[in-house]
Specification:
With 127 residues, the chain is α+β, with helices and mostly antiparallel strands. It is built from 3 helices and 4 strands; from the N terminus they run ααβαβββ.
């Protein structure tokens, strides 16, 4: 469903969107590291200088496949393995509004099925 949305949104806007990799998500989170942990799904911030709600709100899908022990390898090898052998799990980042805010940081990594549909997971598009 996420990939179908990305394709639909890209066609509709004439802009190429994608689901960010774990590294892209992490880089974006560094730009908003001084912002507070969001404990609500209803959150509006009028500060477009950096991404909003990187921590809290929803676990965010990344396009990075989860392959056991892959964090000991480099990203290109992980991507190659994922493309060659298929994978069913992806890395999620950011925590959700029900997570313990003291245990979630920009480094926190979660794992979920790429077909997961949950009120605790969502996605952020990247250009």
């Amino acid at each position: 469903a996420a990939m179908a949305y990305v394709e639909w949104k890209s066609d509709k806007d004439g802009v190429i969107y994608h689901i960010p990799t774990e590294a892209q998500w992490y880089t974006a989170s560094l730009a908003s590291k001084d912002k507070e942990y969001v404990t609500s799904l209803v959150y509006v911030e009028n500060n477009p200088s950096s991404p909003t709600a990187m921590l809290g709100q929803l676990w965010e899908f990344t396009s990075t496949p989860y392959i056991p022990l892959s964090r000991l390898s480099d990203y290109d090898k992980i991507t190659t393995l994922g493309n060659e052998y298929g994978y069913s799990d992806v890395i999620v980042k950011g925590g959700s509004y029900i997570s313990d805010s003291s245990s979630i940081t920009t480094e926190t990594v979660g794992i979920t099925s790429k077909s997961n549909c949950s009120e605790f997971c969502g996605l952020r598009l990247a250009k």
